[in-house]
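Sample 1 of the test manifest.
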Amino acid sequence: MIDRTVPATQRPGPAHGHGTGPGDASPVLSLQGVHQVFRTPRGDVPAVAGVDLDVRPGRVLCLVGESGCGKTTSARMAAGLAGPAQGSVLFRGRDVAGMDRRERSDFRRSVQFIHQDPYASLNPVRTVYSTISAGLRRHGLVGDRREARRVTAELLERVDLTPAEEHLDKYPHQMSGGQRQRVAVARALAMNPEVIIADESTSMLDVSIRVSLLNTLGKLRDELGVGFLFITHDLAVAKYFAWDGEIAVMYLGRVVEHGPTPRVVNDPQHPYTKALIDAVCEPDPDLAHGRERIRLRSSEIPELTDLPPGCDFHPRCPLYEQGDCDSVRPPLVPGRDRLLACHVVNGG
Amino acid sequence: MAVNTTAAPGVWGAIWQGITRSTSGFVGLCLVIGVLLFSFVGPLIIDHHNPTDVTAIWGPITSEHWLGTNHQGKDTFTQLVLGGREPILVGFAAALITVAIAVVLGGVAGYVRGRVDHFLLQLTDVTMTIPFIVLMLVIASFYSTSSPLVVSFIIGLVTWPYLMRSIRAQVLTLREREFVEAARLQDLGTARILFVEVLPNMAGYIFINFIIAVTNAIYAVVGMYLLGLLPSTSDNWGLMIQQAWNNNAFLLPQAAPFLIAPMVMIMLFQIGLVTMTRSLEQALNPRLRDR
């Protein structure tokens, strides 16, 4: 289990509260009004349309939303894998696009990315040792081969892949999905990162393995003060991993609700967040039957190439009201304890 | 999949396992080793002195002349032993040059893309249009003393585009794989990513193409001797076939050993190489190794 007994005050970063307000530890990595547009034959697809996010040391920012809502695109921009069409990505307050060679290499090492699919993200012809030690050796973090093996073994132990010596010379195909994903985490850790961007990193794993990997990641967050940008479509995972952090809910390329995890999960305000939380499966059939389901007006997700006027969510929204909803896009504005983009909730 | 619980056998052990696993591959390897021993160790053992003997032209098979004698009364078996070295060396050297050029240029073109890719593709187009035989004719007529090394250079320098194109195509797909992106995220550097992360994934493919290039180069060099494009005085399987042809050996039953022996050696070597590649692919791919 994630060690929740550590008082929040002992952790790097701020205690609970208004996660996005001023007074927090300064963010390591920020997205500021980033846009990403993909040009396709059917028209421009605005995959991400103006997203602001901050990742702070030792804190988790969880990005949730349906497939195709722009989570992964945002994550790739944050990792510097793609440049934003508009807006900027700041690392320690410096724009990544304007960095010189040295700063960029510093950024490259400090911000690590863990892919979704551990079957694709490890080179099939290289052993665990050679996968993890490549970066260590390249950047002169270890001297000789003996030291490289020792440090690699330590990294494997850090991600709970024990006994480490047994795994060093294995090939990816000799390991399970969970073990591979741990190797991918260890590879990211080898760079001694300040931020880890995890793109659906647990969604390919079995449920039991998922929890234990999340515990490992939680350990890194708490012990090493690594900041996480955690992308998931699974609210249960978000709740489990980002309880002390924040959740930003994305819909069609925009953040619609953003606040401290307990507030967003226990008291969702945006109708889309409510629908997402409502869609989480309830394992107890009695509870599942007794629960009142939110009725969306439509289950169709609008095409990104043909967004409706006004609020993107209004064709599906159960709270839809005549007036602004279908004509004016609601801005993301600070509310009582979170940022929210909804005319009805903010107005009422 | 049986996970190997015993100590890892090491690379050579793994390759040995892979080779011995399939019978045909093992037979192929034995053939290759056999022909190599015959052509490279044989000359150290036998007597090189093989004089012209006008009293024994097209002599029959005897205990003294194991494969009879040729149109000059020279011992066919001695020629056969001495004649393998040159085509095999030329074959390997040419294949090495061809594969090296194809791997480096194909890898760079596929990984770097952009203008470099464009330029290299143009270069393959130009190279592919060079008529190989005509080029050989021209070179042979200008430089009468074509050494085997020059021959292998020429073969290597004109046959790389085909392999280069297929390697480029494979690198184009491999570079989009997530493990390559992961390597880029680790800032490992372009050269390292290309040669250590991407290309080893094609090791089996490259090796098999190397073997195919060897067989092609051997056929090319033998064919050139057969057509008389390469003046050579040393003993050589290709030259033997050409001499047999020039002296109408195919009309004389007693000349059959002189005509057939070099052809059989070439065929055995080629068959050995081709069947060997099948199990080598298994040996070089870690995923297939444990099956």
